Predict the 3D structure of the following.
Amino acid sequence: MATATIETAQRKWSDYRSETKPTWCPGCGDFGVLAAIHRAFARLNLDPKNVVLVSGIGCSGRLPEFVSTYGLHGVHGRALPIATGIKLANPELTVVAVGGDGDGFAIGGGHVPHAARRNVDITYIVMDNEVYGLTKGQPSPTTPRGESALKSSSSMAKMAPYGEILETPLNILAMVLVYGASFVARGFSGQPKQLEDILVKAIQHKGFSFVQAMSPCPTWFNTYDPWKDGSVPLPDWDTSNRAAAIDLALTEDKFHLGIFYQDHRPSYGELYGTVVEKAQGEKQATIENLLDRFS
Ligand code: SF4
């Protein structure tokens, strides 16, 4: 008797496009990130019902609405703990958190090191535009220091009329490398094909994968031209050398695009399973057994 096989058809990027049209400003870099996410999901042929996108607050926080998977537009800076809970509750899901530089590294900054060191099997895409876009152009944790950087945008100059002369920007790539993330990469929304390739590898990675997606905000701080001119692919690169990756992230005078670092240690979920097994192998938690244990 012939055995029937059910083949899953290869999905197209448009299968992941929701009916909600993006509400971003024309030319926003977030369109490039969204396109790369649609195409990466299609290349991996992910079943939309097994994918959850989680966001915080900001222009980037709207992204889950534009993808036809499950999605959760959460509260400010809390995408990572929500994504962690979803993944631990149902390890079969592909969980992707998205957010901006302000959402992730100002109010949400306390969550990043712990997601990274725990090596939870989620992907975190930070759409870095070096400015608070939704709230009309205040300097963010990654705004470059200096007067000239802000002079390119008259709108931004109104929010920071003397430039960003007070605060030094965070180097978020170096930070996540030091935090112990097991996959660290940088892409650019102006190069969506390369960003798509990076996202495919980030989602396939078994552990915490961090992608800094440079995503200009032409409305408040237009960095398209300097980033286009200032981005270069990584040289021939040993992705297992964390110290070299940190050194490059701290000293680069151009934006290197590609995978800076990857290791393959067990994820939090895998280790958590071991804890559950050990606990289940122990004596039942009756009052007598607990008293025995502590007597
Ligand atoms: Fe994009 Fe900036 Fe407009 Fe927000 S304000 S949608 S980041 S261009």
Q: What stands out?
A: The longest strand covers residues 255-262. The chain has a mean pLDDT of 92. The two ends are 64 Å apart (CA to CA). The chain is about 35% helix and 15% strand.
